[in-house]
Structure prediction request, 392 residues.
Amino acid sequence: MNSPARVIAFVNAAHFIDHYSMLIFAAAVIVMGPALGMAYSELLPYATPGFIAFGAGSLLTGWLGDRWSRRHMMVIFFIGIGLSMISVGFVSSPLQLGAALLAIGVFASIYHPVGTAMIVSYADKLGREMGLNGVWGNLGVASSALVTGVIGQYLGWRFAFIIPGVVTVLLGIVFALTVVHEDRKGTKQAAAQARVAKKDMWRVILALLIVVIAISTTFNAVTVALPKLFAERLADMTKSPALLGVIAAGVYVFGAMTQYTIGKLLDRHSLKTVALPLSFMLAPFLYLAATLSDLPLILVSIGIVMGAFGQVTVNDAMVGKYTSEEWRSRAYAVRYFVGFTAAGASVGLVAWLYEQGGFVTMLQAFAGLCLLAIVAAIILPNEIRTPAPQVN
Prediction:
């Protein structure tokens, strides 16, 4: 029988690897250009198919997780994404690079619908585990550029892919040897999940669609724009790229802490009780950030990141609480497909809004979009809690 703590530890590691692997190229591409005889602008588009597969592939992988086996899908995730990273280290042409990056995206698409569903199945306290899982994903985002830079500087860019690839394959082998096929009958979380009246289920679906589109778009836009925003608006404090990077990383630390805090609150209170006050954070902070600079901008940016990261935890918990065990991977697949599609569109939207009126126009526009999060929280129906059975 699987130990819940062991399974959750592997799933958390997978979340770290998932985001880490998708961002290695973004850091390594700067030094890959001269080695492959191509300019930065020529190499960057080769990552596009992988990012498309990262979102679109979740529909198929979520279906396979429900219909076949989540455990087997996670074995494929670890081994597949590890071998794909290793393969990037051996490419000798742009076509091979594009194929290897596509493979990373395909295998990376397994994690969110399958891994998140496993968290729900094995969690004793769903909110806490969701929050911790989010922290691990954020650590993957934060450490990818740093570790890739260090490995690339001392060993070369190829080893920046090969070393994490080898570690991931080894982790996958350990996972395959220590985690058996899951038993989906009578899981703790399935018994304790929140319910709503059948007549109110449309409100849950509508609220989830609204908030996922609004928050995913805003979340990705903020992560894309924040470095440039700080470079422009913190010029009176510092012009050091390194220090700006440290400030941005510090801001994101507050986001990770918020995910853990929101997760614990979700274990004690209903989803609507947590979601409603949280939904009021983003719009005013984004509107204020449009005209601020220096220390006030840093403080407001902390509020923005806390609101955005907290909403991500709420969205994942919403799917976990309101879906049945046999449909859960597919529900997460749709949630992440919609979210990643909206996030992808945000990059072009950021560029267009910035051209129209700089960060003032961009941030005010996203402040308006985040008013939808308030609407979604109001739409959410009250829960009918079903207590877990007592274990003697």
